[in-house]
Amino acid sequence: MTRWMWLALGLVLAGAQLGCESADGDADGVPDSEDCDALSPLRWRQVAMYPDPDSDGVGEDTPSTLCIGKEPPRPFVFGGGDCAPRDAKRWRTVDGLFRDADGDGVAVGEARSVCLGAELTGYTRTKTADDCDDANTTVWVLHPVYLDADGDGAGEGEQVLRCGGLKPPVGTYASATDCAPSDGSRWRVLTYAHRDEDDDTFTVPQAGELCAGTTLPAGYSLTASTKGQDCDDTFRERWRWLDVYRDMDQDGTGDGPVERRCSGEAPEPGYSATGTDCDPTSGLRWRMLAYAYRDQDLDTFTVPESGELCVGTALPPGYGTVAKGQDCNDLAATVYQLVSLYPDSDGDGVGVGASEAVCMGATRPNGYSSTGTDCAPEDGSRWQTLSYAYRDADLDSFTVSETGSLCTSGTLPPGYTNTAKGSDCNDSNQQVHTALQGYVDVDEDGVGAGTAELLCTNGTLPSGYSTTPTDCAPEDQLRWRRLTSWHVDNDGDGHTVPASGELCAGTTLSPPLFLTASGKDCDESDRTRFTWGVLYPDKDGDGVGAPPSSVLCRGTERPAGFSIYGFDSDDADARVTESAEDAELLERLIAW
Question: Any residues with CB less than 8 A from the CB of 104 and at least 6 apart, and which?
Fold first, then answer.
């Protein structure tokens, strides 16, 4: 019902009960005299309630008097005392709390009362120490430390306080041990027992200490160098004692008394490790070298001669330790080798007679040769004897076997050779040279016959001869070979029967013989008959016969008195040519 209907109902009820002490105008069970809202059955009692604007179930401190029914209206509650009426997450005041914003269990400040919700988030009831950074859960303890400005891992300078966890913060240290606060490569004091001041890897005993890093710097060590003790640690080019000799001419070899000097890998300039200089005044000579061969004319050919010379790096020209040839004249550079030569009076390069020992240079002197086999000593155009095994007298390039020798100019003349070519059947006639076997070919069809003849030819048989002796018709040019036939047509009707045989022919077989079949002749003696056919007797001559049929040999024409048809129902009457059934079948066939 609407508010106006309720109001009208209330007025009626009120009018009916005027003058009665227990009137209940809104019928809510509470007399109007006790009802705080006699016009509304939803409200009848008056209570004190607290506003709860944040709806957290706890109202504000100051209550309000309200007319209500069974349930309190929102936003009102029965209890008050909300310490944060506008914040639904906080409503109660807790005493004796310490601030712990980062929740690491370490508090800051003094105990106090705090408005909170169900949890003590950001606070704790106990305090063991003051948190040095209440915004960071990883740090809470103040550590007295030393900073590391140069980043070498060691503390230095004045002590400062830094907030950390159980340990001091990274980069800070509990003690100030850095011996070089401004140098990140050095932070601790190390002792040394040996020095290498000139950095030549050789040391001298020397104890001390210095500010260093992980290890001692170069030039300092706890142990002596395995290479030995430095004899001069101020100059890196000298580290060991050497026994040396004075080298006044600076040729690398000294002389005189030995001296002990501090040196490097080699003696210093003006000194040498050897004292065998054979000429102390000359830098070009310092040692004695032996020689075993001489070459006075410097033609590189030597003679045996031994001795010693004061030299430098090597023996001078004209002296050596290795023989080269045997100089036949060591006073003239143009001749140096002794060679056995033969007199060559005709100047053809080949001598003859007894050999002579000649002292010569690189070239042989005129009138001599290294060989003595001249077969014509007085003829300069011939000097060498050559043998031959074949002759070609007619110079047709075909040879015959013949051995001998000639005095020549180095090559065999034409007509003589050591290489065979064919076998010349007539070495006196240049036109013929090759022997061929031929057969007489009378009819000149290319195939001969008879007994073979051996002919001397130019490589080809002459006309009238053939290399083949198989002519089966020597007098007939059209026939020369035997051919096998497999079919025959004796009556010439174009139809054959199988028959094998052989005959003398030319290029191909000629009738009546054939290689392939043509039909199958049923009568080879009659050219008019050549094929088998099924025929019926036709007694009345009407063109249609009647059974019984016969298989007859026939040609293109049908034999008289026979027909290929066998359906005449009355072969004695020429007017009747077929049965009723055959006539009907024939009509159907024609119609189809």
Answer: 131, 137, 138, 140
Please answer whether residues 92 and 75 qualify as being in contact, where contact means their C-beta atoms are separated by less than 8 angstroms: no
**Mean pLDDT, the chain, whole residue set:** 87
User: DSSP class of residue 522?
Assistant: S
The torsion angles phi and psi of 591, rounded to 5 degrees, stand at -60, -40
The residue behind tokens 């024409």 is 557
Query: Which helix (DSSP H) or strand (DSSP E) does residue 16 occupy?
Result: helix 3-16
Over its C-alpha atoms, the chain yields an Rg (Å, rounded) of: 75
Structure tokens at 452: 């073979």
What is the average pLDDT across 399-427?
94
* Residues 6 or more apart whose Cβ sits within 8 Å of residue 170: none
The tokens for 231 are 């004899």
Give the alpha-carbon dihedral of 50, 53, 58, 61, to 10 degrees.
-50
pLDDT at 328 over 70: yes
Lowest mean pLDDT among 287-291, 308-312, 499-503, 588-592: 588-592
Contact (CB, 8 A) for 342 and 372? yes
Segment among 305-319, 369-383, 545-559 with least mean pLDDT: 545-559
Structure confidence at residue 578 (pLDDT): 64
Which tokens is 379 given? 């003829």
Which three-class secondary structure state does DSSP give residue 51?
strand
Q: In which band, very low, low, confident or very high, does the pLDDT at 538 lie, cut at 50, 70 and 90?
A: confident
The answer to whether 286 and 267 are in contact (CB under 8 A) is: no
Instruction: List, in order, residues 6 or more apart from 367 with CB less than 8 Å away.
Output: 343, 344, 345, 347
pTM (two decimals): 0.32
* Angle at CA of residue 213, ends 208 and 214, nearest 5°: 105
Residue 587 parent element (H or E): helix 580-591
Per-residue pLDDT at 519: 81
Q: Determine the Cα–Cα distance for residues 154 and 144; give it in Å rounded to an integer.
A: 15
Domain spans of the chain, in order of start: 3-90, 191-236, 531-592
Cβ atoms of 152 and 183 within 8 Å: the answer is: yes
Using DSSP's 3-state secondary structure scheme, residue 307 falls into strand
Give per-residue pLDDT as tens, 94-120.
888 889 888 888 888 888 888 888 888
Dihedral sign for Cα atoms in the order 537, 539, 545, 546: negative
8 Å CB contact between 565 and 536: yes
CA distances from 89 to 109, 111, 248, 380, 548 (A): 24, 22, 107, 141, 133
Cα–Cα distances in Å, from 301 out to 60, 61, 114, 295, 359?
136, 138, 124, 6, 13
